[in-house]
Structure formats: structure tokens, C-alpha cells
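Co-fold these.
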Amino acid sequence: MEINRRQRPETAEKADFILPAFSKYKLENVPDIYFIPKHDLPIVRAHFIVNNGSRFDPLGMKGLSNLLSMCIDEGAGKLDSLQLSDAFDILGANFSVTANSDVTMLKLQTLSDKFDAAFNLFKDVILSPNLNEKDFLREKRKIATRLIQLEDDPDYLANSAFEFLVYEKNNPYAYQTIGTKEGIKDISVENVRDFYQNNFLRGNSAILIVGNIPEDILLKQIDEFSRTLKSSSNDHFAQVPPTILKQKLFIINKKDSVQTEIRTGHISSKRNEKDYYAKNLLNIILGGQFSSRINLNLREKNGYTYGARSGFTYNKEASYFGVSTSVGIDKTTDSLREIFFELKKINEGVTEEETGFAKSSVIKRYPSNFETFGHIAANYSNKIIYELPDNYFDLYAVKINNVTLNEINIQASKSINVDNATTVLVGDAEKLDKQINGDEFGEKIFIEFDELFS
Amino acid sequence: MELLDIHCTRYNLSNGLEVILYQNNLIPLIAVNVWYKVGSANEVKGKTGLAHLFEHMMFQGSENVPKEMHFKYIQEAGGTLNGSTSVDRTNYYEKLPSNELELALWLESDRMGFFLQTLNQEKLDNQKSVVYNERLERYDNQPYGLAWEIIITNLYDKGHPYSWSTIGFPDDIKSYTFEDVTGFFKKYYSPKNASLVIAGNIDVDHTKSLVEKYFAGITSNDDSLTSPAKDAILKKTKLVVHKDKVQLERLYCAWLSDKAFGKDDASLDILSDILTGSKNSRLYKRMVFDMEIAQDVTAFQFSGKYSGHFVIAATAKPGNSLDKLKSVIDEEINLVIKKGISSHELERSKNSINSGFIYSLQNIDSLADQLNLYNFHLNEPNSFNYDLNRYNAVTESDISRVAEKYLLKPRVELKIIPEDKNGN
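Predicted complex below.
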């Protein structure tokens, strides 16, 4: 074969990719069921998704949904905490529970031949968790200690302070799912039990199964849910719309820190069909991947950081735009200047070439988002959480491709606004104060992390 | 297990490059994974971290690929990519739609054969600064972030190739010169010191001809590489106290153990699972669940080509001393040695390892890396069954035996305490 190294090789003929198909069942007595068959390996994944994230935590009980997620697998059915854990382990099954701001998710990964046994345990956790006081108190003490431990982590301090300041304290999304020291103090086991009773309900949840399992076995298993899962409640959530803020710079002291954690950004529009695709492409150009403007500037040109990125973070009912990086203390001002420079510059628009790159990278990468059982389950979980249409995955690439340069440029000028940027710095406040001139990045406010939530 | 029988084609090019092909047409993706048999163990005093810095330099372009274009080409084609450096090897990998196989081979071959031509001081200075910041972000500014470095510098003799961390010491990172980097490339980045795995939706014959096209013209150097191996011995237990910006104290105990795929490596892995791998594991149940003296406890067997070590780490809950944690850890180790473990405990660990092998087959890129790993250590890429059988062959008495053999020996005890506290 002849070789010409000077030129990028030509792309070969495209191989076919078929999106995994799914079935959706709406049975009388059970939550929505999504089933995506996948037969290449003897694996099954199950997700139980409950509309029960930390945004539902009442004021004064920030951390309640997380506490429930910690307690729910501390024994269920006839098994206590240790027996239940052992029962999953001996099957070689992986079971976990996580809560985020929107949902609580119970996840199971098992070999196909252990599916029945593992799924029976999974159902027990959902339908009859013990939620006893002894386990509750232990888990609560664990979280209290974890909250102390997290105060040492600059990354956590920066993220939680930024989200709190950008959403503001009356917005449920202002709080980390783990909650606050104050918030968990007065939570009792009764609160956790009530929270479970009021949320683990039909109509407030969905089941997702991906894998190698005959449909009839699956439906028989699911059918058993109907006997115990109670009927639905209404969505009891009242969202406080976030407000657009004036440019401000908050400095959170971490004495003798050798780096500054930087977060900057502002509220953005909710995830909806209209501007999501254009914003997605815009962010790929701005800071969504390695070859983006922000990373090439801060890392590859200036060497200020190991990496810098930007993104639109979508909660179900709200979203924000943010840039994050960590830099040497002495480069904090320089880095902020470069970030603000890029944010202003993008307002002027992007190029055809950048748009072509962004589209190509998203569209051609699409098949690899469906490679593993885990990828497929994660994608369909998002479809459920964000209530995306059934043809969402089929049309995704087409919609990305249809976005015009003009549409991206409208977002570039509309959805990135330095004038509204809330900036959080976590680092040595004394050194940072000396370095940052006046209100170059907005009014300078010094605050201790603990004071934020009080 | 038939599922774990991963049939490969393996051969060498005339320049010595080892090639491993694995065809799996399930989805239209390919993984390209190159291992260079050089890691931090090959570095010399004063230049620690050079292998890792070099990994960064390999993304800075080559004769036909301008700076920043390596990432751009792959991302534009819908691919993902990265590299990593360990004690023994440096790997570079990309996953792409299968119709872009040739792009990956062009890029990998260009930096294997035509890297030095475009290397310059500016690129080096830039990446030294990036790596220095990487060290600050991932080690110096992380709570407990220096623990690993403190453990290995104390556990291994000065001069042992595992006695420094892959990121390198701060002063060393600042010291790399242009000559250091070019010399490193010439010595280690030769086709005969590398192995190339291509896995996924490929046609084997066509792929062979493409590999020939892009890699056959690259010449290998004449250097014969010497092994940096040196026996590791720790004669006396070392107690180290390190003050950090943390509120909770943490204890680390580390012992020298067996090397990768050594006789006791698999037993030590299972021992770590029996001690801390689940809610019912010995140390977790006692320290975190029952006594609530620890916030977390974890154990693992780290094993490389030349040596290995076994580590137990536990974070104290407020009001509990690290000595109390230590005495419980020692008690439980002694119980494993004297009373042994139950068949149920062993079965639990083995079942999770068995299913873990099957779960691990889901990603074509991690599978490609695993083929390179087996080839590196065992000289046979298709070693999934061999590897699994190592674990299945472990007996209850093996667990007590390795606990006695390794965990009663001298060790490094590292206490990480808050800055405002006196350590004693």
C-alpha cells in the first residue's frame, strides 16, 4: 500500500449502526416499565427511578432524600442490613443506591442466570425496607462525619458554594444532595419513613431493564410489584424560578492552599427541545472538550492549569452555565482574565469550521454512547428523568445536524453573559485579596464556607 | 469459560513491533491501544516523572500532525482518546467509529516514528507547567493527596524503581531539559519496545495490511534495554507522621508483598476483599458498622512487574485515636492468620470476581487494554481464563498463609493528622 503521511487518511465506508430498540409497558398496577433487550453478554441491568431527589427536601431538612437513600438498603424483607448486603454479594450482583437533586436511583447489575434471585432482593428493597432506628442513626452519624470531611476538599467547597450562590438560598437546587450540617441535625427516622411512604409510589417512579433476559420472565417479575407498590401522589414540588444576578466575586478562604479553585457562571434556560441542541454545540466549541477555546487558552497556550472546562448543567427544572478549573494561586487573576476574555469573545459568534467540528464530533460519536449495558441504562434513565419523547434517540443526530450557524450564534450572544457571572474562588484569601484589583470581576466578597448556609 | 476465550491474532513486524488483533463486530467501533514498555520505574534520580511528562509531549504533535491536531482529528471523527503512565508502562489509546481505523493508525505511527522533528522548547515549557499544575491539583492540594508518595518513598529503598511516584517530585518536574526528552524518546519509544492492540469491528487481513503500511517503515533503535529490577526489602517498621490540611486523621499501613501475577498476587487480592471489600468484610463490619470508630476503611494489593505492596487505610471518626484503629486492624489480621476464614467468605469474594470478569467485557477499549496487559505480563493476550483460574484456585488456607507471610513483616505506618495537632 502506498503511503502519503502528509495527509489525513480518507474515511472508509460507514458501517451500519442500529440503535437499540426499546419496549415501553404501561401496566395497570405498576410504574412505567422500559425494556431494552441486549443479548451479547449474559448481563442484566435494572434501574428503579423515583422522582425523589434532594429538591424535595423540606427547608430545615436539607439532606433528607440522601438519608433515605443511605438507609433504604439497610435491611429489607426478612433480611437485616448485613444479611441483605451478603445476599447480593453472594450472587455476584452489584447493587447501589444514589440520590441526586432530581431523583433517587436504585441500580442493579447481575448475571442473567442470577437475575431472578437478585431482582427479588431488589424488589424487597423498594417495597419493604426495614428503615429501623438503629441503622438510621448510624447512617446519620456517617453523613455528619462525611460533611466534616468534605470541608477539606477544595473541589467540593467550590462546587457547593457556587451552586448555592448561583441558585440562591430559596431555590431547592441551591443545596448539595448530601445536605448541610444544620439540615440533617433534626431529621428523625420518622421523617425518613414518611418521606419513603410519600414518594416510593406508582406514578412517581419508573423501572428500566437493559439486558439479556426473556421478556416473559421479566414481565412475570414486574407483575409482582403490583401487589405492594402503593398508588401515586402528585408532584408536590413548587419550583422557585432562579433570578439573574449581578457580577460578583466570592472568595472562600482556604489558608495556605497551593491552588485556587475557580468557578464562574450564571443561571441558564431549562432543558427543552428548542435551544438544547444549539447550546450543546456552542459549549463543545467554548469549553466542552479538550480542543475547546477555554482549554486551549488556559492549558495549551498559557500552561495555567491541568484542565479547564465549561458546561450547561441541567437539573430537571432549572439549569446553569459554569466554567471550572484549578490554577496556581499566582495565576488566579491571569486565569480569570482569560476566562472572561473567552466568554466575551464567544458573544461575537463562532465560525463555520468550529460548528462543523462540533457537529461532526457529536454525530459520529453517537453509536459509542450505546456500547455497554451501563451506557444504555444511563441514556434511558435520562430520557425518563427529563421526560424526553420516545423518538428522542432516533432524532438526536438529525436535530444536531439541523442546527444552523446562526442558531448557535444566537445562543452565543444570548446564553453567555459575563455581566451576570457569579465567581467563586477557593484559596488563600490573603494572597487572593492582594492579587485581585478592586472589582475587576465584580464586587469582591469574602466569606467563610460555613457562613454560607446559615 | 467460553465467553472469556478471546481469540486474537498476534505477530511481529520486521522492526519488532508486536501486533495483536481481536475482531468483534458487535457495534461499529474500534479500539486502538499502544503500550510502550516504559514507565516511571525506568527513570533516574533527579528526573522522576519524566515518563509521565513524556506522555503529555506525545499529544503535542509530530511531523505531519500540528500541535493540538491530534485531539482534534480524533474528536472530529467521533472518537475518544487519552494516555496514562504507570510504574511499568505508558499507554495511548483511542476509540473510534470503525471506518476511521486508518486515522488512528496514521496518528499513532506518526508520533512513534516522526515525533522528534517538531519537538521544541516552547512545547516542553508549556507541558512542564501543565504537569506541575496537575501535581498541585491531584496531589499537593488534595486532602491526604501526598499519602501514596510518602508510603512508597518509605517502603522502598532509595534507588528502587518503585520508590517515587509517576507524577514525579516537584523539583524534578521543573528540571527536565530538551535533551532529557529527546533522549527518552530515542531510548524507549522504539517499535520493538511497543505493542499495538486493535480490537473491535475490523477485517483482520485488511487491518494487517494497514498496520504494515503505517508502521513497517519505522526503524527500531539498537539500544538493548536493561531491566531496572531490584529486590525490595524493608528491614524495620517505619513510623511516619504527616501534617495535612485535614480535620479527620487517617492511618495507612503498607507492607511489601508479591509482584503482578506472582504466586501470591491473587490470594492477596482476595484477602483485601475479605478485609474491606463489602459491608460484611472483616474490617468494615467491625470498624465502620459495629464500633463506628472509622468513617471508612479500604485495603488493596498493588502489584507491578518488579514488586508489589499491600495497603490498609482507615479514616478515624472524630474522638477516636489512630492507635485504636491500628489495634483493631492488627487483631483482625491475627484472627485471619490464627482462625482462618470461612468457606462462605471465600465464596462471596470469588463470586464477585467471577461476575466482574464478565462485566469487564462490555467496553471494547478496556478489553483492548487488558489484552495488552496480559501480553505484557504473561506474554499471551488471551489470558482471561488463566487469570480467572488464578482466583478460583485460591483456598481458605491460602488466605491465612499470605496474611501471615506478608502482614506480620515490618511495615510503613503513616499517620496523617491535622496541621494544628501534635503527632507522637
